[in-house]
Amino acid sequence: MTTLEIVEILVRIAWLVGAVGFVIGLSRMNSPATARNGNLLSAGGMAIAIGATAILILVRQASGVPVAGISWVIIVLGVALGGGLGLYTARTVKMTAMPQLVSLFNAVGGGAAALIAIDDYLGLAAGSSVRIDTHIFIVLDIIIGSITFTGSIIASGKLQGLIPGKPIYVPGGQLVTLALAAITVIAALVLFVSGTPNLLAPTCQSSSRC
Amino acid sequence: MTAAEIDGLLQALTVFTLAILVGIAVISKVPATLHTPLMSGANSIHGAGAGS
């Protein structure tokens, strides 16, 4: 095994350890007495996951996998901006406004997941054909992430009082929802059959499939 | 569909089903006062999942 392969295995194990930290941390939310400790455990799991990923990228680069300079700029800027804003708002928010802030964070998490899934798909489609199992997860990730994004923003707006708290009824709302669901499924099928997101052709000039 | 693809789908389905059960078991006993920190913790898992 090469050094890179060994590091990849160790990183996957580290991700698993992080995930176990999350689950145990969440289960310690069962009582206020253990909740603080549980939160720390979850944060520790997150730190392990981020650290392992950073090490993975560094070792890949050292083994000759090219990592563009702009990628590092985006990573560092993303961590600094996202982490900085998150830390600042979480420290300064009034305790009574905490639920809407958590909801807003949740929206950002969902949106990020959807964007990463789109990027994953573009990367895979530019290489070779996308396997159906991978395809299904990516499509689900985009759908769930997008719904998390919009739903959590509305929840946050309601908690903040920016949107009326009472249910909002759109005329023919159920039909609209049904139509949107149908469009989503059809779009996923078209994407699978065609294999290439043609709308994004300008971004995949280097690919033989475009 | 190739055998490898079906294998991948079944593996993912297994993990997904077990994760649902674990998820329900973990959060079902959390009191309402701790729902906000629970949301916060669950949200960070979402972020980590997306990152990997």
Low-confidence stretches of chain B: none
Backbone CA Rg of chain A: 21 Å
Shape assignment of chain A: globular
**How many E-type strands of chain A?**
0
Residue windows where pLDDT falls under 50 for at least 5 positions of chain A:
201-210
Amount of helix of chain A: over 70%
Number of helical elements of chain A: 6
Which chains have the largest interface?
A: A-B, 43 and 33 residues
**What percent strand of chain A?**
under 5%
Main sheet properties of chain B = none
Mean pLDDT of chain B: 83
Overall SS class of chain A: mainly alpha
Report the total helices of chain B: 2
**N- and C-termini, Cα separation of chain A:** 35 Å
User: What's the rounded overall pLDDT mean of chain A?
Assistant: 86
- For the report, how would you describe the main beta sheet of chain A? none
Q: What's the oligomerization state?
A: heterodimer
Q: Beta-strand percentage of chain B?
A: under 5%
Radius of gyration of chain B, rounded? 15 Å
Structural class of chain B: mainly alpha
Give a description of the structure.
The complex is a heterodimer of chains A (210) and B (52). Chain A contains six helices and no strands. Chain A is globular. Chain A is an all-alpha fold and 210 residues long. Chain A has helices at residues 3-27, 32-62, 69-92, 98-127, 132-160, 173-194. With 52 residues, chain B is mainly alpha-helical. Chain B starts with a helix and ends with a helix. The model of chain B has no long low-confidence stretch (mean pLDDT 83). The chains are: A mainly alpha (210), B mainly alpha (52). The A-B interface holds A 15, 18-19, 22-23, 25-27, 29-32, 35, 38-39, 42-43, 45-46, 49-50, 53, 98-99, 102-103, 105-106, 109-110, 112-113, 116-117, 131-134, 136-137, 141, 145, 148 and B 1-2, 4-6, 8-9, 12, 22, 26-27, 29-31, 33-34, 36-52.
